[in-house]
């Protein structure tokens, strides 16, 4: 089993490439397929995504915890893996009933049925792919290498085979190819760990996993509704342009958030295994370090996005989206709120079987988000939606802290966190001086990133921050290899 640091590094690489590849491919695809083609694919993908959500039933997160519990008991681990895979495939059949019904009775889908059916391949291969198994046993090297290979193949295929707007079906195969390829290899690679001939199929209890997985399903459904609530309400109340401004600012903050939140993917299986083994002291140590790491990464990221909101929007979205700067300023702190609530929910409460607390916190956030949207969107439009997001995510974090405090194995507030706050404030002063003195947007953005990183890291170095020292030592070891 790889070290936790190695797993974090590999998952970080996987997350970053997952961000970079769409940035490379989407501009090309948009110019070739034009708005109608891109719109058709995205529309069908959204429908397929909801079918996958319904048929997955919360299994991916549940399966990571269950397989990680029995990681050292190979016979039980393998039996649980087969049971959950069979349950996924059974539920997948209901997904294709939904695909057929939609294809037959919805005119917008029926008119491009071949495209819809191609994109629906994701449903079957998601059920078959057992990606959760490799997360649970912490084989992040396999996950990362496999993902890089298929993402690279997808990019090459796009540039080679998608040449005109008539290549829409080819583009659909390219889009699903990465998912299909990844998950097919996942299943084939499973033979390395499980000898199917040794499984006593008569003793399998497939449906025993249905009820506990359905609890996670409730959380996933609430979260899914919650995430699209602002966009839907903005669209009905303010129109497409307001949605565009909100999407631009919110998406940029979530790109940074995805890097911070990726830690949870690595930590969940390790935390679940430690709880099952009764190693509460080790569980406390790694969750405490994870909490501290998120604070150290999220605070400067948040302040940097707020100070550089205008040049960032200009560089990544264009001058037409300047008004989205206010959205980015209000959604940037969400990086801190969601980053910490992920540590509490995914790494601490969920491995201890306290998923109901996570569900209630999400319900609370969704309620506040809806009410605030009703009050703020008519007055402040997309900025009002961003303010609603800010408050709602703060509510989620607050509820988790209040309800789950007795399950948190370390002090939430410590003096050492002031190191990161002070370093972030000093960094902000340096960046603000650059913003006020340099008029060229490209220069101010690049200079601010470099100077900001130097000030932040330099301040922590002077303070002899142990987390920085540990990170630098690990990086040096990697470079020496």
From TrEMBL:
Q: Which UniProt keywords apply?
A: Cell membrane, Membrane, Transmembrane, Transmembrane helix
Its membrane topology: Multi-pass membrane protein
Any one GO cellular component localisation term in the record: plasma membrane
Q: Membrane: is it a keyword of this entry? A: yes
Q: What parts of the sequence cross the membrane?
A: 12-30, 42-64, 84-103, 115-134, 143-162, 168-188, 217-237, 252-272, 293-316, 328-350, 357-379, 385-404, 416-435, 441-463
Cell location:
Cell membrane
Question: By its UniProt entry, which InterPro entries does this protein fall under?
Answer: Poly_Biosynth_Transport, Polysacc_synth
PANTHER family per UniProt = O-ANTIGEN TRANSPORTER-RELATED, PST FAMILY PREDICTED COLANIC ACID TRANSPORTER
Q: What is this protein called?
A: Flippase
Query: Whose protein is this, by species?
Result: Bacteroides oleiciplenus
């Amino acid at each position: 089993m790889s070290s936790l640091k190695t797993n974090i590094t590999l998952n970080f690489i996987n997350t970053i490439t997952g961000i970079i590849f769409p940035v490379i491919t989407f501009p090309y695809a948009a110019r070739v397929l034009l708005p109608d083609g891109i719109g058709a694919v995205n529309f069908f993908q959204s429908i397929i995504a909801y079918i996958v959500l319904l048929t997955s039933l919360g299994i991916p997160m549940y399966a990571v915890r269950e397989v990680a519990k029995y990681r050292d008991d190979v016979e039980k681990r393998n039996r649980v893996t087969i049971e959950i895979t069979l349950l996924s495939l059974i539920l997948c059949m209901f997904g294709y009933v939904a695909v057929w019904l939609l294809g037959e009775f919805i005119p917008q889908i029926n008119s491009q049925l071949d495209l819809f059916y191609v994109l629906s391949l994701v449903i079957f291969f998601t059920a078959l792919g057992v990606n959760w198994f490799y997360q649970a046993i912490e084989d992040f090297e396999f996950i990362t290498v496999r993902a890089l290979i298929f993402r690279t193949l997808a990019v090459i295929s796009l540039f080679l085979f998608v040449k005109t707007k008539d290549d829409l079906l080819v583009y659909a195969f390219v889009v699903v190819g990465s998912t299909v390829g990844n998950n097919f290899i996942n299943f084939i690679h499973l033979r390395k760990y499980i000898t199917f001939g040794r499984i006593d199929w008569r003793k399998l209890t497939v449906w025993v996993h249905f009820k506990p997985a359905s609890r996670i399903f409730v959380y996933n459904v609430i979260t899914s509704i919650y995430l699209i609530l602002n966009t839907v309400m903005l669209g009905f109340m303010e129109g497409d342009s307001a949605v565009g401004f909100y999407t631009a600012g919110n998406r940029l903050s979530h790109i940074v958030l995805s890097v911070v939140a990726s830690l949870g993917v690595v930590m969940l299986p390790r935390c679940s295994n430690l709880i099952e083994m009764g190693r509460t002291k080790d569980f406390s140590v790694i969750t405490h370090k994870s909490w501290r790491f998120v604070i150290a990464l999220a605070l400067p990221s948040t302040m940097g996005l707020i100070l550089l909101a205008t040049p960032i929007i200009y560089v990544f979205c264009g001058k037409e989206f300047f008004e989205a700067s206010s959205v980015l300023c209000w959604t940037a702190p969400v990086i801190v709120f969601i980053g910490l609530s992920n540590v509490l929910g995914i790494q601490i409460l969920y491995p201890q079987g306290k998923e109901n607390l996570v569900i209630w916190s999400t319900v609370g956030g969704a309620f506040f988000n809806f009410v605030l949207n009703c009050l703020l969107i008519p007055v402040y439009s997309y900025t009002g939606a961003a303010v609603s997001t800010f408050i709602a995510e703060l509510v989620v974090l607050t509820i988790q802290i209040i309800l789950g405090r007795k399950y948190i194995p370390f002090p939430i507030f410590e003096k050492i966190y002031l190191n990161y706050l002070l370093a972030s404030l000093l960094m902000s002063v340096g960046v603000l001086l650059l913003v006020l003195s340099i008029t060229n947007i490209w220069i101010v953005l690049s200079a601010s990133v470099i100077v900001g990183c130097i000030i932040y890291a330099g301040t922590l170095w002077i303070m002899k921050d142990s987390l920085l020292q540990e990170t630098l030592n690990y990086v040096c070891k990697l470079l020496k290899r």
